[in-house]
Specification:
The protein is α+β, with helices and mostly antiparallel strands. Helix content is 20%, strand content 28%. The radius of gyration is 21 Å and the shape is globular.
């Protein structure tokens, strides 16, 4: 007898798909469709970040083809109800997030507006596509993080998008989130936690407060996204270099650190670890892949600040970033950043209770299923 998964939740930063058009997409879609065929979900929620990639103004046409390839595929033909939201109005960067949400279902319900009460929901029917600025679209809410959050930093297309659903008489908020990255590996090594971690904590707390405020009917929620969570870099580097000679190189004209080099004391003084602003080259990279990176999972600490309001299922996949953009090396990490679990699906405690209470209500599919 075939088994079915009611709800399939997927999150993925798809920037590299558009920056390497034609090289990665076919394999990525093959993995996605294989997951759909394997789990046979009745409702699919796809949450994408960085739609269009780094050169989004050039790639946005391909982004529309990407969504069409998913929607029109043979594997998705049984889903007769579709809702697609793509915020790609790049001509107004003050409001644009460049994130996308795709919902595929057999028979579920969609809200008409926000703020919402149960009576505001209506049944989904046919194809519902919203592409562009999304101004005036009442079935979703989006917000870019305020510029005055951190005036000393240059922020880009970061923020969140929320939709609301009733599935089996259970209301849910599904929230797509894209948080700030680490601009410099060297600065990330300065303190524990780093200044970047503090910035992300403030932004995520802002999102949680916004979707939990009293003006909205409270519902269990799932947070999808590229949270850009990084390992506690200072603590990790200290651990990796315990048996090494550490050399700090500074610029001639200032006292600013330019690079950190850790050499093995034996083994012909091989360079164990080399860190620069955008370089993190560790000799034994396999530690991040073996046993799904369990040996370094203890340095994944950023979610701990939110244990009062959100939870997460057990991490059973290796760090999701920064995989090589060379499609012939799908399991190799680039030497640009310390590998980390940036891409996650988090949830409120009430949402986690639903998962554990109802057998097969949700299968959480993390990005490792979609990057090979």
């Amino acid at each position: 007898m075939e088994t079915y998964t009611d709800v399939l939740l997927v999150t993925a930063n798809v920037g590299s798909l558009f920056d390497n058009v034609g090289e990665i997409e076919s394999d990525w879609l093959r993995e996605l469709f294989g997951t759909v065929q394997s789990h046979k979900p009745r409702f699919i929620a796809l949450h994408f970040q960085e739609v269009g990639g780094k050169d989004y103004m050039v790639n946005m046409g391909h982004a529309e083809n990407f969504f069409w390839n998913i929607e029109s595929s043979e594997e998705m033909r049984d889903f007769d109800r579709v809702c697609i939201y793509v915020d790609n109005h790049f001509k107004n960067l003050n409001i644009t997030l460049l994130i996308g949400v795709c919902m595929f279902s057999h028979s579920f319900t969609l809200p008409t507006s926000l703020p919402l009460t149960v009576k505001d929901f209506k049944a989904v029917s046919g194809q519902n596509k919203y592409v562009g600025s999304l101004d005036g679209v009442t079935t979703m809410e989006k917000e870019k993080f305020p510029k005055n959050f951190w005036p000393d930093f240059k922020w880009s297309r970061k923020g969140f998008m929320r939709t609301r659903w009733i599935i089996h008489n259970q209301g849910l908020d599904l929230v797509n989130v894209h948080l700030f990255h680490d601009a410099s590996n060297l600065i990330a090594c300065n303190a524990s936690p780093s200044i970047y971690s503090a910035n992300r904590q403030k932004a995520l707390r802002y999102v949680i407060n916004r979707i939990s405020e009293s003006s909205y009917t409270p519902l269990p929620f799932f947070l999808f996204g590229d949270f850009n969570f990084r390992l506690d870099t200072l603590s990790l580097v200290q651990n990796l270099s315990t048996s090494a000679e550490v050399q700090t190189v500074k610029k001639d004209s200032s006292n600013e650190v330019e690079k950190i080099i850790c050499e093995e004391k034996d083994n012909d003084h091989k360079i164990l670890l080399h860190i620069e602003t955008k370089l993190f080259a560790y000799l034994h990279q396999a530690v991040f892949r073996e046993d799904n990176g369990r040996a370094i999972l203890k340095y994944d600490k950023e979610i701990a600040a939110f244990q009062d309001v959100i939870a997460e299922e057990e991490i059973l996949f290796p760090p999701s970033y920064p995989y090589s953009e060379d499609y012939t090396k799908p399991t190799q990490y680039m030497n640009t950043r310390c590998p980390s679990w940036c891409d996650r699906i988090l949830m409120s405690h009430t949402a986690q209770d639903i998962i554990h209470r109802v057998s097969k209500l949700a299968t959480l599919c993390h990005p490792h299923l979609l990057t090979s």
